[in-house]
Specification:
Glycosyltransferase RgtA/B/C/D-like domain-containing protein, mainly alpha, 2 strands, about 150 residues, 6 helices, about 60% helix, transmembrane helix
């Protein structure tokens, strides 16, 4: 005799998508459009330099941030790796050179790119929340248990 299960992958997928969208909506509604700490500013500057200048070095003005390091030849770099700037760079490029032009932002297209690049943590959190919800549904065999585990 075969045991029946109420687990439906489509239902779990739907719950995971809604959980991710809910997290994204909360972040979007509370996003200020500015980095909260200087780590975010250095990440943003690095992302912009990758797209606009095709370099990972930072401008001299970035030396005010403690998250920078100067090489022996005087060139300035971020202390951190390139992971986040590389992930944020396409968001910045799409915002500045795609969406910004599409909506006719003119010189303000820079700010559209900046805002989209700063959404990287929100997008990562929403994706992670959705994945965890899907994993929970699979683990518990129930979309309801994944959305509100006891």
């Amino acid at each position: 005799m075969q045991a029946t299960s109420s687990f439906r992958p489509a239902g779990a997928r739907r719950v995971a998508i809604w959980a991710g969208l809910l997290l994204l909506a909360i972040y979007l509604l509370s996003a200020g459009g500015q980095p909260f700490i200087s780590d975010g500013e250095v990440m943003l500057i690095t992302s912009m330099r990758i797209i606009d200048e095709r370099t990972v070095s930072l401008p001299e003005g970035a030396s005010i941030y403690p998250q920078t390091v100067r090489r022996a030849d005087g060139v300035l770099f971020s202390k951190y790796g390139l992971g986040q700037p590389l992930l944020a760079a396409p968001l910045y490029a799409f915002g500045r050179y795609g969406l910004g032009k599409l909506i006719g932002a003119g010189a303000g297209a820079f700010y559209v790119g900046r805002f989209l690049a700063l959404l990287l943590p929100a997008l990562a959190t929403a994706l992670t929340g959705g994945i965890l919800c899907a994993w929970g549904a699979r683990l518990y065999g129930s979309a309801r248990a994944a959305a509100a585990p006891e």
